[in-house]
């Protein structure tokens, strides 16, 4: 479980490359970005392979609701690892 907040109400939400994604210039949207739940399972098939299964959901907080579309983000992934 993660709770995300901005450093200050006038700060921006930044993407992985460092560019601002959302901004509340007056700070009226607040600092609360939202809460995220991550569920991960790692299934080992042997010493050289495993399957990682994950699901994540972000429930947007006041900042997300106040700065644009407020759909909750969700992702599911599978990753098969082979080591030799």
Architecture blueprint of SSEs:
Elements: E1 2-5, E2 12-14, E3 20-23, E4 32-46, E5 49-60, H1 62-66, E6 73-82
Antiparallel strand pairs: 1-4, 2-3, 4-5, 5-6
Explain this structure.
By secondary structure, this protein is mainly beta. It has one helix and six strands. It has one helix spanning 62-66, and strands at residues 2-5, 12-14, 20-23, 32-46, 49-60, 73-82. The strands form two sheets. The chain has a four-stranded antiparallel beta sheet. Strands 2-3 form a two-stranded antiparallel sheet. A hairpin with a 5-residue loop joins β2 and β3 (20-23). The mean pLDDT is 95.
Q: What portion of residues is helical?
A: under 10%
User: Which consecutive residue ranges, at least 5 long each, have pLDDT under 50?
Assistant: none
Shape label? elongated
The main sheet orders its strands as 1-4-5-6
Sheet with most strands: 4 strands, antiparallel
Q: Structural class from helices and strands?
A: mainly beta
Strands, count: 6
On the 0 to 100 scale, the average pLDDT is 95
Give the helices and strands as they follow along the chain. EEEEEHE
DSSP summary: helix tally: 1
Q: How big is the Rg?
A: 17 Å
| Strand content range | over 45%
State the distance separating the first and last CA atoms: 33 Å
Summarize the structure in short.
The protein is mostly beta strands and 84 residues long.
Descriptors for this entry?
four-stranded antiparallel beta sheet; mainly beta; 6 strands; 84 residues
């Amino acid at each position: 479980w993660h709770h995300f907040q901005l450093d200050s109400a006038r700060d921006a939400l930044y993407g992985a490359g460092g560019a601002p994604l959302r901004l509340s210039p007056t700070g009226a949207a607040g600092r609360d970005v939202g809460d995220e739940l991550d569920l991960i399972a790692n299934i080992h098939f042997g010493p050289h392979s495993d399957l990682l299964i994950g699901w994540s959901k972000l429930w947007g907080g006041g900042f997300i609701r106040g700065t644009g579309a407020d759909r909750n983000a969700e992702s599911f992934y599978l990753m098969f690892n082979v080591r030799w």
